[in-house]
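Sample pair:
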Amino acid sequence: MRTNTTIVTGVAVLLVLTTVVLHVYNEDTHKQPRAGLQAAGQSNDFEKLSARLDSLENALLTHAKSNKVIFLETEKSIAAIAAARQSSVGGAAVASVGKQVAAQDTSETYTESHCGAILPAGLPARTKEEVMAKSKLDKQYGKGIQESKDGAAPKHLVDSAKYWEDRYAMGGNSGAGSYNQIGVFKAQIMNGFVKDNDVKVVIEFGFGDGQQLTRAEYPRYIGVDVSKTILKKTSERFASDPTKEFRLYDGHPVPGLKGDVTLSFDVIYHLVEDAVFHEYMASLFAASTKFVVIYSSNIEGWHGAAHVLHRDVTGYVASAFPDWKLLGTLRNKYPERTAQDYFFYGKC
């Protein structure tokens, strides 16, 4: 049974979470947290506090984003609530509110949002319907995205490993997603995640030409890729950096390869063969001890290009890796230019 201190802590955490959530969720306006919450937390009017908490639970569940600000402010609010609890007016009222919070703390949503990870603040990933509607109008490859009516992929899709080996051997790069503003956005998010969560080792499955890696700030990095050509080129590019290591990937889980975080940047929708996709995902999740970060589209269908087949990433992970929880998602800063968003998983 929870002690009164634990109950009070739960109330404080809920207050702080709700306050910070309402602040960080609106990243464009940067409005300050509502002063009324702080006042409610220090008030002896516990009936009002209880009613206020009830009204904010839905906002918490819908918009909660794990942010390090929460942890910095929690101790202050715990002290404020503890002081209020000492008053003669509402000790029992605080306890009753605490019971509601305790029940909420064990919910799936609460666990998924606070599985030992500090996530970047921002809007959640777009819905599949939203991305599909946009993608059907995208004429990048001559026609919009095509949905399969019978579940079968088009017959013209390539051997993905051979495609990338040939592309790199002919001097090609990893694609637009590693360059310009999108590449900067991806790096900012991942660098922040690594720092905030004290990540020591990052393993990337599909490092490509290394352009994205030039912006990385990781204590230690291990990259694997199927292309012998790009392995040689990228290894030479970072030869003077002892924190980075590159290996050839044979498409199967790598025995003994472990890191705090495994990373997939713009790879999954290029795995057009089902067997290759399944093995890649198994490798990605097997190598992580804490988190898996995926930057990818999350829809199903092909895009008119022989090397692109979009996958239902979240649906597949939920089915194939039930021990891994979706901690949160992050919408792309440039949604008009790409179908990719961030997806953060944790084993908890």
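The two ends are 23 Å apart (CA to CA).
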